[in-house]
Amino acid sequence: MYWWKMKMLSCNTRMLFSRYKLQNPLCFITKCNTFKFYFSTSAITDSSSIADCLPLTRKPNQTYPVYRERGIESSSGADSFVKLFQQFGFSDTHITRILSKQPAILAYRPQKYLKPKLDFLISVTSCETDVVNIVTKNPFILTRSLDNHLRPLFDSLKSAAGSNENAAAVIKCNPFMLSFCNSSSFVRNVQFLQTVGVPRNQILKMITKYGQSVGVKHDKFCKVVLKVKDMGFDLSSSYFREAVLCLSFLTESAWESRCEVYRSFGLSNHDIITMFKKQPAVMSFSEKRIWEMLDFFVHRLRWSPSRLSTTPNVFLFGLEKRIIPRCSVLQALVSNKCDIKDIMLQTILKMDESRFLKTFVTKYEDKVPEIMDAYQGKLTFGDYNFESESKGKIKIINSNRTISTMATTDSLALSPLLLEQSSDEKGHESVIKLFKSFGFSENHVARIVRKQPSIISFHPQKSVKPKLDYLFSITQSRSEVFDVVAKNPVILGRSLKNHIIPFFTSLGTLTGNDQHVFAAIKRNPYLLSNCVSTTFLHNIDFLQKLGVPQIQIMKLITEYGQSIGGSHAKFRKVVLKVKDMGFDLSSSCFLDAVRSFSFLSDLAWESRCEMLRSFGFSDHDISSMAKKQPVIMNFSERRMRDLLEFFVQKLRWSATKLSTSPNILRYSLEKRIIPRCSVLQALALNNCNSKRLLLTYIVKMTESRFLERFVTAYKDEVPEVMDAYRGKLRFDEFNFESES
């Protein structure tokens, strides 16, 4: 940055101290030739504007030498800066956030340096709102050169994404790409991914989610990608993307130092690679965190290195906030000889807070008084032996245990009727032997037969084998076929000639090759059995003509495939309806709306609208609610009525308030909303000064946080608060909001 810009910024910041006397002190930092300052929006009074608070003027008609040298009047500079941003739709809050993140833009001339870049962003996104969101999230964009950086990088991104719309969608998802990626390296890195054989949809996801990794120096990027490929990662899996991201910002010395920590706890090089392949994030952690996690699992839980390497996802959870408290709860239950469910520890750690609380804490609170202290981290144990006591009543099991249910052909639960339907007495054995000859494990076979028992009546060589041959022929990964068939064995019941092959052909036309198709099938195995191939291609073609970005179409296929495989006439009607409602074709709400409305008849839609109108909703309120949270229109009439009665009649919410915050309706009325409102009402009746928060925010809180802030904190002062939390205490009227 030029010296005069630095001097101007320093001068302006000192003036902000003297003139406005902000209550929140400024933190003025000099680092890497960039000045940063932070100020609170609370410092701006109602009678003042952003322009008044910008540190660009002190007294009328007074200028500083630095301004005179550049020909800029300080007061006019402040006004022109604010007016420029307001012309592009930025509010005072947006401008405040931009300045708090990147104050250096105060030194740029608005018309000469800032306006051309904002015009450029408008031209590529075609939406002023998107530009406001992008710049507010990453104002550093405005400090980069338009001709030397922004234009070349966007052109490279457009080339990689396939169209201007796809490139704009990527920027919306990851605004930091435009400031941190090297445009010259970016093109070469994308070309290298294509050369290596990475599917196009994977490249788009890498650009969208992990764009910074694709923008690193070309030599380093090539080295990283080849290293990840040599480790055996599937190029079409999400783990490949995560591994590239991890290694892109991890030096060789850092990698080796982390490996040394793992080796010091008994893990071999093979264990380390296995762990990294299953969860690449484990190598991104600091050495301190890795050491603390290993020390707990190896020394206190007595896990073996092989077990750790096969279940690395446990490393993703917080040691102090989740792992130790939950293990302490289990140990407390074991110590008190409580009979609990037979569940693996990694499954217990993965449980959401509400389910864990209900299954292992509140259920035993009367029998084990110290259970709440263990859950809150106040009670810990020097030794944890709950897993080693699995032979008694407590059955927390070891992950190395094999699944015994239906694990062998002898134990497969086959009904007499199914045996009669098979071609001969040993027909079911022939089908099972066929699966095993293709490499399916006993566990896979058990899952297939359990989900689709009629499959044993198929002729192995005529009906099953040709379909398996075809599936194995279009992918290089046999494990992917095992997973897809085990998740949805109905596939094997569809016609190979009339359904499976035409479907792959249709989807291949869109994605480019069979590898991309199978990546979509892997993510949503039900696509292959539920979609009608003849209408599938028509629906995709319609979306393309309508202007839906390809990345959105791929998401619609992989995440909501059933909605795109229905009748073409109905699908066309639904998409046009969603578009006419004003949905952005590149937003996730558009996908949710298409999915929700695809399975909602006109009669069902109208009946739900009538119910909303009966509670005072206008057509505008209904449209606003559907645009913000489309899934609400899929609720049953009974559920919708119960929710509306509670919010409108008991909480006295207006229709306008509900239409502007419809996300609250997604939560369970009986399990979350009523118990939490009962807790708040109990606190209000006892004049407890709980922190003033919006109800929408309180309902959205995790169980542990709500419990800590509103239940356990007042348990002694308000004894009935626990009964309210458990749903045992209810109120006919709730007035806590009006008393807040």
From TrEMBL:
Q: Which InterPro entries match?
A: MTERF (IPR003690), MTERF_sf (IPR038538)
Listed A to Z, the keywords are: Transcription, Transcription regulation, Transcription termination, Transit peptide
Spell out the Pfam families in the cross-references. mTERF
**Which range is the signal sequence, renumbered to this chain?**
none
Keyword Translocase in record: no
Q: In terms of domain of life, where is this protein from?
A: Eukaryota
| GO term, biological process aspect, one | DNA-templated transcription termination
Q: Return one GO MF term.
A: nucleic acid binding
Q: Please give the family membership noted in the entry.
A: Belongs to the mTERF family.
This protein is called Uncharacterized protein
Q: Which organism is it from?
A: Daucus carota subsp. sativus
